[in-house]
């Protein structure tokens, strides 16, 4: 389904009064349609499973191209002259392109493409907003971002590959999303395609004093024996790397945790994961060059729908 | 790709200065990546073709269920007692449900479900906005809405089935969308999935004086022999039925027609067609009951992205 929809509890139904006033036999016909609706939603769910299988099949076709990209980005491979005969930016006149190349000499000391992924991340709105100033030098060591989908468990993993760096000892950080393709048992009619059920992060082996996801704050004690004294306390700090410590899923939460806000966090976390998987990874060079930007900034089409009734004008 | 993106002419690139300052050998590496990007976009295009084939395959699985729906809506078939043992609205307590059924008797004179499609249309924002008051009595004769996808030409047809009515002689009105699954030759990097290339409507055989897409207006002549006199002129009127006289595609337009605004109209027309195909048809009963509503009205998540960096808080 191309739009997000929302299923309300029956009392909220915008057509409640009309439904209430229907003759009994018509009400029963509507019930029969709802039973059919549950069946067709199950067919939809099977459709989404097949699309996921297609995604797995196509990953193999993308892999060779993405491996070549990594080799060029890291400097493992130098492109051949035939590989480079395309304009570096689209839509430029020949002289503009020439201007772009003016006064540029080769620099044999530069290996690969410096800050390729960092720059792509910074150019994608949603990803950029998850980054803090202190994350940038760390993300400068990012050499590749890959994804692989799986059928069991259904979902996908994002892998962030890092060159050796002074921040942590890991060469790879991972984030996994487990998805559900079946309608929820207690609310099958609210099915709207695959949905996230769990996000699984990874432990980061930070070097001493390098963990940007924590910060020390001094707090004046208000009560107790130490009242009036300052104590140092470690608290969470905003960082892109919190992405690897994802929100808890339903069955990981305590009873006293707020389910709704936890679900919302999980959805937002998934939105970021999807953006990296579906947009940044397959289009990285276009974000690097700055030619591609999320439309969210300037395109609000369809939001109020006003334009749509505008088919006809009165000049005909 | 889950988001809409926008590819700018190179001059608009947000990273223009950085690109300009890259050493020549690094620039060449970026060009090589752009060549790879074109290749991976071709793979994506193949993926979307396969998804379209899956859609065609799944239509057969939906058909039986949608045929049953039509039979119940039109009164061709009465559901059996086992078919109706589900609540008419979701999420109600037993007593609320009982209240909903109170004082309702069967009315043997009512055939099928009156105004089923009209009500579903009125409940879907985007479709509702394309409808005018004078369309409602006509759409009350709508008995079914179906869709079928095809591979050659790639695209889909919407069929609107009507009972015999005093407005037009047609029993079926159709709207076809021809889609392109390949990147555009002159701008392959702006590919963002299948896009509409042509919308094809149908002629409506209106009964005399019943054509709601036209209206007579009296106009005072300003010039010429008839200056000062009132002449009656027929002009286009707003109507849902303008949907069957779609915006012209690129090669149908005259040179002096505004390409950009024509393309925009075609996009908006396609948006409406997609909403009917992907949302109203597969979920009609939920729009009829008013349980499902487009989220566009109240859900603006991700628009400014603010919430996404909100993973961590400072209480840990």
From TrEMBL, chains A, B:
It is found in: Cytoplasm; Nucleus. The keyword Ribonucleoprotein does not apply. One of its GO terms (cellular component) is cytoplasm. GO terms for molecular function: cholesterol binding; histone binding; RNA polymerase II-specific DNA-binding transcription factor binding. Its main location: cytoplasm. InterPro entries: NAP-like_sf, NAP_family. It holds the Pfam family NAP. Keywords: Cytoplasm, Nucleus. The keyword Cytoplasm applies. SUPFAM superfamilies: NAP-like (SSF143113). One of its GO terms (biological process) is double-strand break repair via homologous recombination. Belongs to the nucleosome assembly protein (NAP) family. This is Nucleosome assembly protein 1-like 1. The lineage of its organism: Eukaryota, Metazoa, Ecdysozoa, Nematoda, Chromadorea.
